[in-house]
Write a structure and sequence with these properties.
By secondary structure, the protein is mainly α. The chain has helices at residues 4-15, 22-42, 50-70, 79-96, 100-106, 114-139, 144-149, 154-168, 180-197. The chain has one domain. α2 packs antiparallel against α9 (180-197).
Length: 210
Amino acid sequence: MTINPILVVVIAYFLLKEPVTRTKLTGIILGTTGAVLLTLLSSQPGSAASLGDIFLFINALSYAIYLVIAKPLMSRYSPLTVITWVFTFGSVFVIAFPPTIPELMQTTFSGLPTDIIVKIIFVVVGVTFLTYLLTMVGLKYLSPAVSSGYIYLQPVLVILFAWLFAAMGIAPDYTDAVTLEKTGCMLLIFAGVFLLSRTVKKPTESIQGK
């Protein structure tokens, strides 16, 4: 997933003619380095993840294309309009996708525990709808490359929420997995996102001589 901002920069360069600045490249390199190192330090030895890596790469590529082609829509439509049509077509595809139909028919929704229902609602509303809606809102003011750069914050936020949920007693304590090396990776990630956010400049027009 850390390759997503790089893919966005490449695709936006060809489709939107977005310039690739040194600051943007430096931010991507720092964020990628920190995220990759953090992933390697957290990985479990002996896991066969080649197939998973392929699927994640396809996911990252698809999301990169989505960010780039959605950017021009923000100048014509509201974020809510765009996300409504995205989820309408997405829902039709998921429901009509053959492998999901048998499992959907066999699901006993009345037997779902309350905590599972709450988690499903959070995934649908918080993780999916609000996340994509806020992404569309962000694209009104930011370039696709900057928007995708914030993906580097995910592993950092995972660690922070692991601390929080462990302190609240609603999740196992993973805080012993946070080391000095991982903290250094987190700082690299923050530095990369900071540099990416600085690449946004409002277009100015010289009025000298007018």
